[in-house]
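Onboarding guide, step 5: your first structure request.
Type a short instruction followed by the sequence, for example:

Predict the 3D structure of this protein.
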Amino acid sequence: MKLLIRDFVGSLKERNELDAILPDLLSEAGYTVFSRPGIGTTQFGVDIAAVGPDEDGERKVFLLTVKPGDLTRQEWHATPQGMRASLSEIQDVYIPNRIPPRYRDLKVVICICVGGDIQETVRDALTAYEKANQTERITFEEWNGDFIAQLVLSGLLRERFLPDELRRSFQKSIAMVDEPEVAYAHFRELAITLKCAVGDSKVKRVRAARQLYLAVWVLYVWAAEADNIDASYRASEFAILLVWELLRPFIGKKTKDSRAIVRALEQLIQLHIRISFEFLETKILPHVKNTFALSAAVSSRHYADVNLRLFDLLGRSAMAVIWVFWSTERGEGTATDTQSEKLAELAHLIIDMIGSNPALLTPLKDDHAIEVALCALVFAYTRADRRVVADWVSQSSLGVGFAIRTHSRYPTISQIYRDILQHPRERTEEFRKTALPGSVLLPLYAVLLAAHRRDDEFEALASLIEQKLPDCTLQFWLPDERTEDALYEGSEHHGSALTDISLADGPDALLEFIWEATEEYTAFNELTCMRTGYWPIMLIACRHHRLPVPPQFWIQIARSMRNPDQENG
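The system replies with C-alpha cells like these:
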C-alpha cells in the first residue's frame, strides 16, 4: 500500500494537487493549520503553516515550502522561485512578520516538502545550508515522498479505521482502473463501509470525509496515469453523496468539526469538477462537432450500446455545466460576461453533440428522461438559443413517437441490459404494454414542448398517447418525507409518484396541474441540499441512482418560458 501511495504522491503537481492534500493530512495527524495555499497572494516562501507537536512532544510552528517531484540542482537555486530562495524568504520575512502573535514564542520547524526525493547532486548544498542557518529557535526537516506517503496512510488508515479487507478493496479499485465497472464496485464497497463505521461520532465523520477525499484523489491520479478516468469520475460523484450524508448532522452549526467537514466537501466538489472537465476536454469536446464521431468511439456495432453510452456522456456533460453555473452563482466564480459566454459555449457544444449523434434523439430507456431534464436545465440556465433547443425537443419527441407507432426502438422501463439489447423482442401491442406500462419521459417531452410553445408537436404527442398508449401511466417523481434519509446513499422505497397526468386539456392546463401539485409537496424544499444551496447534489443523486429529476427543478422555468409575464410566486 505504501509503495502505491508513494507513486501517487510523486506524481502530484505543486499547485492545487500536492499543496491541496497536505493541509488535510496535517489536520488529520493532529496539527492546527493556520495558513493554506493561496493564489495571487505573496506567501514569502511558505505554502502551508501549521502548529502541532514535534517528535520530542514540544509544540512548534511548522512552515512548509512545497515542491513537486524530485528536488534537483536546478530547482535548488537556478530560478528566483527555487527552494533556496524560498527558504531565505521564510527566514528573512515570514518568521519575523507573518507568524500570528499567539505563536511567536514557539520554536519554528521549516519543512522542505518534495513529492519525490532530494537528489544526490543537491544533497551537500542543502545540508550545508541547513547547518549554516539552524539556530536554537529555527530547525529544518525534510519531508520527501516516503514521509508524505506515510501521512496519507495515517489519514486513510488512522487507528486501523479501515480493516484489512477494505484496504484490499482500495488496492483493487486502484489496480482495476482500466476496468471502470470493477474499480468503481470496489470503491463503492470501501466508501459505504467507511461511512457506516462512523456511528454518531462527529470526529469520525470528519475523518471519514477526509479519507473519502484522499481515496478519490489517489484513484484519480492513478486513473489519469492509465488514461482512463471513468472510475474516478463515478467514485467522486458517489463520494460527494456520501460526504453530504456525513455532513447532514452538522448543518446549521459553526463548530470546528462542521467547518472541517464542509471544507472536505468543498474540496471534493472541486475535485469532481476537475475530473469532469478533464474528461470532457480530452475525450468529448474535441469530437462533438464531428458527425457520428462519439457514436463510433463507443466501439460497438450494437445500437443499444451506442445509445446507452451516449446518454451517459450527455448526462455527464450537462452536470459539468451545471456545476460551473452553480459555482458562478454562489460567488466561487466571477459572474462576468466572459463567464456567461463560456457557459453558453458549453451549452452549444452539448447541442452540437446531440446534432452530430442522432442516437441522442431517440432514447432507448424511459429513465433517459434524467438526461433530457438535465440538458433542459442547462439550456435554461445558460439561456441557450431557444429556437435551437425547441427544435431538439420537437425532433426528439417526434422520433420517439415514430418508434412507438412502428414498434421499433421506443423507450422501455427495463433496466436489464439483456432486455435492452433485444428491445423490442416483439412488435406487438401486448408487448409494448409490458415494455412501457408507465413513463416519465413522455410527460417531460410534453412539458418541454409546452414551454417552447410547440403546440402542434404537443398535440401530436397527446394524440399518440391517446391512440397507442392508452394504458401507459404518465407520471413524475416527487420527493417525500422519507427522501432525505434515503436519497444520498441510494436507498429504495422513497418518494411519491405524481400520476393522473393528462395532455387532453392542452399545454397550459398541463403546466398548471404540475405547478399546483408541486406546491402541495413541500418535502422537496426541506431537503438539506436544497435548503443550504447545494442543489446540484440533488441532481447528481438523481443521475447516479437513476431517479427522475423532480418537477420542482423545472416547472417554474417552463411556466415562465410559455408565459413570460406570468407570476410564478
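Each response can be followed by summary notes, for example: The chain is about 60% helix and 10% strand.
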